[in-house]
Amino acid sequence: MGEGQAKLVEYQQALAEALDQPRPERGTPSNIGAFPDRNERLLTVAGTRESMLNVYALRECRITSLVAARNNQLGRVAPPSQQWIYELELWRRLHACWHSNVPDSLSESARRRLERVTRTKTEQLPKVSWNSLFDSEEWVGNFSRASSPLMPGDTRGIEAQLDALAWLRQATLHQFNPEWRHESATLEGHLKSLRSRPLTAEVLRALLLAEQRLDEATALLAATLESESGCLALTASPEELQQRMTDMEAFDWLDRLEALATRWLEAIDGLFDSHLPPPDAVASYRERWLSLENPHAPLPAFRQARGEHGRHWQALVERCR
User: What is the per-residue DSSP string for 139-175?
Assistant: First the structure.
């Protein structure tokens, strides 16, 4: 039993004893939803086919070696993150070339080709950016259902993962800014941080678990409120009892969980908002599991459970005072 569950169970047991109620039967919260399959979460990006002869005609744009590297054996099997680095660099060279004196020196057909390729790559870059993230095993693994609930005291790698989300968001927002630095090593370092633990899944599962235990504890208070002799069974005055119960470590754990989950899911939300609108399957997953507002999503539902528990305590104090 993890730290969080142990503290919540301890609170439930103490509450049941104080209310002279039987200990609640603890249910098992459902698992989080499965992350959409690869074909459901990626955006379609049409291939750009240009013969090496045509590419050579644009050699003054400094793209021939870049295209050759992309088309060789290593380039074709590069991970999604490196494909984005390639597309980003290619767009920057094409963009710089189109806004230089080079087009004036090109033949009419080469100039039209440069304009067409630049426009196509400009339209494709946001899609490639999305696919590079949602096709990466580091990002997909962050939502793994084969995970345990987060223990708020376990902060291993969390700051590094938050830094990774912040950098990825900035990289997306600045992908059309030629001055933005996008070193491959920096990107890979942040992806390595995301790979260290499935933090999103751990947060979601901890929220589901805490909501379940809070609902079970609230049912104890509700049973006392519904009983004609419930107030007589209290082992202390209602105010003293509430103070003693809510001073237990479980409530500090809930505070830390809510703070950390809010910080993490707000960062996830910001990263989503920096991209194009997602495919339907990803949009549905986001609304159901990552939303900051949908009352059925884990974080708002957890907050609702905390609020409901507090309201039952207040009702008990007022009735039994």
Answer: HHHTT-SS-----TT--TTHHHHHHHHHHHHHHHHTT
Rounded distance between C-alpha atoms, residue 41 and residue 279, angstroms: 6
Coil, helix or strand for 291?
coil
**Is the pTM of the predicted complex or chain greater than 0.85?**
yes
Q: Residue 295, Cα to own-chain centre: how many angstroms?
A: 18
Cα gap 187→174, rounded to integer Å: 14
The phi, psi pair for 185, rounded to 5°, reads -65, -35
Q: How far apart are CA 86 and CA 70, in angstroms?
A: 7
Taking the C-alpha atoms of residue 238 and residue 257, their distance in angstroms, rounded to an integer, is: 27
List the one residue out of 100, 98, 101 whose CA is nearest residue 122. Answer: 98
- The candidate with the shortest Cα–Cα distance to 199, out of 147, 249, 238, 243, is 147
Cβ pair 238, 245 in contact under 8 A: no
What pLDDT score does 254 carry?
94
**For 102-135, what is each residue's pLDDT tens digit?**
998 888 988 888 898 899 999 999 999 999 999 9
Residues 6+ apart with CB under 8 A from 211: 29, 298, 301, 302, 305
- Can you give the pLDDT at residue 63? 82
Q: Summarize pLDDT for 261-282 with one digit per residue, the tens.
A: 999 999 999 999 999 999 999 9
Instruction: With residue 54 as reference, give the H or E element that holds it.
Output: helix 52-57
Q: Are 246 and 5 in contact (CB under 8 A)?
A: no
Element (H, E) at 280: helix 280-285
Sorting pLDDT into bands at 50, 70 and 90, what band is 213? very high
CB atoms within 10 A of CB 106: 18
The H-or-E segment that residue 137 falls in is helix 137-141
